[in-house]
Automatic annotation (TrEMBL):
<dbReference type="InterPro" id="IPR022953">
    <property type="entry name" value="ATP_PFK"/>
</dbReference>
<feature type="binding site" description="in other chain">
    <location>
        <position position="211"/>
    </location>
    <ligand>
        <name>ADP</name>
    </ligand>
</feature>
<dbReference type="Pfam" id="PF00365">
    <property type="entry name" value="PFK"/>
</dbReference>
<keyword id="KW-0324">Glycolysis</keyword>
<dbReference type="InterPro" id="IPR012828">
    <property type="entry name" value="PFKA_ATP_prok"/>
</dbReference>
<feature type="binding site">
    <location>
        <position position="103"/>
    </location>
    <ligand>
        <name>Mg(2+)</name>
    </ligand>
</feature>
<feature type="binding site" description="in other chain">
    <location>
        <position position="154"/>
    </location>
    <ligand>
        <name>ADP</name>
    </ligand>
</feature>
<keyword id="KW-0963">Cytoplasm</keyword>
<feature type="binding site">
    <location>
        <begin position="72"/>
        <end position="73"/>
    </location>
    <ligand>
        <name>ATP</name>
    </ligand>
</feature>
<feature type="binding site">
    <location>
        <position position="162"/>
    </location>
    <ligand>
        <name>substrate</name>
    </ligand>
</feature>
<feature type="binding site" description="in other chain">
    <location>
        <begin position="213"/>
        <end position="215"/>
    </location>
    <ligand>
        <name>ADP</name>
    </ligand>
</feature>
<feature type="binding site" description="in other chain">
    <location>
        <begin position="249"/>
        <end position="252"/>
    </location>
    <ligand>
        <name>substrate</name>
    </ligand>
</feature>
<comment type="subunit">
    <text>Homotetramer.</text>
</comment>
<feature type="binding site" description="in other chain">
    <location>
        <position position="222"/>
    </location>
    <ligand>
        <name>substrate</name>
    </ligand>
</feature>
<keyword id="KW-0460">Magnesium</keyword>
<comment type="function">
    <text>Catalyzes the phosphorylation of D-fructose 6-phosphate to fructose 1,6-bisphosphate by ATP, the first committing step of glycolysis.</text>
</comment>
<dbReference type="InterPro" id="IPR035966">
    <property type="entry name" value="PKF_sf"/>
</dbReference>
Length: 319
């Protein structure tokens, strides 16, 4: 009987449990044994593997976080830690591993594949920073969370006649800022990929205030610069009382929306069927409305392309 291990790694994202549920139940349906690794690559090094059954993943599709736990492992990057991880897999007789996580996690998966393990990478990150897939699992729930927060911030900002700089997550990818800024009706969006001239943002704020608009919302990606410094400069140049709201980790938590549940379930299923099909390593992605299979190394070499079309829409209608 084939044995498969699944681990969730890196930053948690809504939809991780949907992936785990799909992987476990598909593996059992296909006649394979499935093992959960507790705590990501750290747990793999320490041999924290538990066999999972259908009942192990009951009532989790709607839950945020991950029942397996996650971590960012520095030990896995060392020769000693990596060798221990391989030894654990050998002891358990596992030759196939499914890794759900972001860019760093999938690069760890590539390292396993280069050591002779069949690996499938699942794109699971709120950042949406993997170039080979249109969307990562967890992204749309994070955008919904940020959009709801922007709507609430708008109410109090308008009441006081202020401006508010809303910092969202995403590391060096501005997609959460771009999508939530558009959906939340922000007046300006600042992303790492396209740093707008502050003079344009200042001009827009002054023009809209002069025509009677009482508030001003700017959504800023965390990788675009220092939010507090920008707020000070904005207030100084516009004379508008300006506050900063850092949304932080609330964007990682909460029940996944229908998109992330669907993506998690379909991509998880595909990961199992592909890893059982042949001896090779893959990344599973979602492009042009379909779940697709990519060579793992090639997938990680594809650069993320910023969506300038949406950015131009924001500029046209956010006035």
């Amino acid at each position: 009987m084939e044995k498969i291990a699944i681990l969730t790694s890196g930053g948690d994202a809504p939809g991780m449990n949907a992936v785990i549920r799909s992987v476990v139940r598909t593996a059992i349906y296909e006649g394979a044994e499935i093992y959960g690794v507790e705590g990501g690559y750290e747990g793999l090094i320490d041999g924290k593997l538990t066999r999972l059954y259908e009942s192990s993943v009951a009532d989790i599709i709607q839950r945020g976080g991950t029942i397996l736990g996650t971590s960012r492992s520095t030990r896995f990057k060392t020769d000693e830690g990596f060798k221990k991880a391989i030894q654990v897999l050998e002891v358990f007789g596992i030759k196939k591993v499914i890794v759900a996580g972001g860019d760093g996690s999938l690069r760890g998966a590539l390292k396993l594949s280069q050591a002779g393990i069949d690996v499938v990478g699942i794109p699971l990150s709120i950042d949406n920073d993997l170039g080979y897939t249109d969307y990562t699992i967890g992204f749309f729930t994070a955008v919904e969370t940020a959009t709801e927060a922007i709507s609430r911030i708008r109410d109090t900002t308008e009441a006081h006649g202020r401006a508010n700089i809303v910092e969202v997550m995403g590391r060096n990818c501005g997609d959460i800022a771009l999508y939530s800024g558009l959906a939340g009706g922000a007046e300006s969006i600042i992303v790492p990929e396209r740093k707008d001239d502050i003079e344009e943002i200042i001009k827009k704020a002054i023009v809209t205030r002069n025509r009677g608009k009482k508030y001003h919302i700017i959504v800023m990606a965390e990788g675009a610069g220092d939010t507090n410094e920008f707020a000070k400069e904005f207030e100084k140049l516009t004379g508008i009382d300006t506050k900063v709201t850092v949304l932080g980790y609330i964007q990682r938590g909460g029940s996944p929306n229908i998109v992330d549940r669907m993506l998690g379930s379909t991509i998880g299923n595909k990961a199992v069927t592909e890893v059982l099909k042949e001896n090779s390593s893959f990344a599973i992605g979602y492009t042009n409305g379909k779940v697709k299979v990519f060579d793992l190394e090639e997938a990680l070499s594809i650069d993320k392309v910023f969506n300038d079309e949406i950015n131009e829409v924001v500029k046209a209608i956010s006035i």
